[in-house]
Amino acid sequence: MNQAPTWKLLYRAGAIAALVAAILFRRNIGAEVSLFTGIEAIPQSAAEWFSLLQTNSFVGLSFLAVFDLANYFLVGVVFLALAARLWAVNKSLTAMALASGLVGIAVSFASNISLSMMSLSQQYAAASGDVQRASLLAAGQSLLAFSGAMANFPGTGTTMSYLLIALAGVLLAGQLLTTHRTTAIFGLLAGGCDLAYCLTFALSPGLQVLFMASGGAFWMIWHLLIARILWKYTKE
Q1: Which of 66, 94, 95, 153 sits at 20 to 30 Å (Cα–Cα) from 54?
Q2: pTM of the model
């Protein structure tokens, strides 16, 4: 089956994006970074976050999931490449999967507060009056409350992005069962764990950790397998 050069370029981009996502990005990367810095406690108040961002911006941004911005961009490229390949297989399911994935990624971008908190931190450091500092602290506290960073459960935006991206992964992986069974199974496990996490995180902290960790591991394997498949498509 001969592919148009445009599709081959997209497959190549998707393969590279999947490989980079699998190797460089993991869940709870902030916790991993903290192991090498000696910072154990995650800040709770806006003032504590501002202090951390001013003294160690890399760690602070890691805790605030700044790397998710790059990770989900890569995932978006992977979804586009897979959708291009699967479009002829099932247009309705592929369109639903792509829409779900891209909306989930957009929600993740919109709900990520890392860069906004960094900006507020810099303004707070440069502020000269108590009134201005109090206003910036209030703005930071509001951002933290919105994102769920100070709560026991993730914020609405984070939960919705997990749910939509997981659904996209399941819909895309399901279409690979007849041609790439192993890859499809890992994709279904990855998306299934995230869906289960979204449905059970309020019921059991133990299940929350299990599904989150398992989903992250399955996504990593799935990305590696998808990278290999998409690269093969460029040779057709």
Answers
A1: 153
A2: 0.86
Q: Which of 153, 164, 132, 171 is nearest to 208 (CA)?
A: 153
pLDDT by position in tens, the chain (length 236)? 455 677 899 999 999 999 999 887 766 665 556 555 656 667 888 898 999 899 888 888 888 888 888 889 999 999 999 999 999 889 999 999 999 999 999 999 998 888 999 999 999 999 888 889 999 999 998 888 777 554 445 667 778 888 999 999 999 999 999 999 999 999 999 999 988 888 876 666 667 778 888 888 899 999 999 999 999 988 87
Q: Would you say 229 and 183 are in contact if contact means Cβ atoms under 8 Å apart?
A: yes
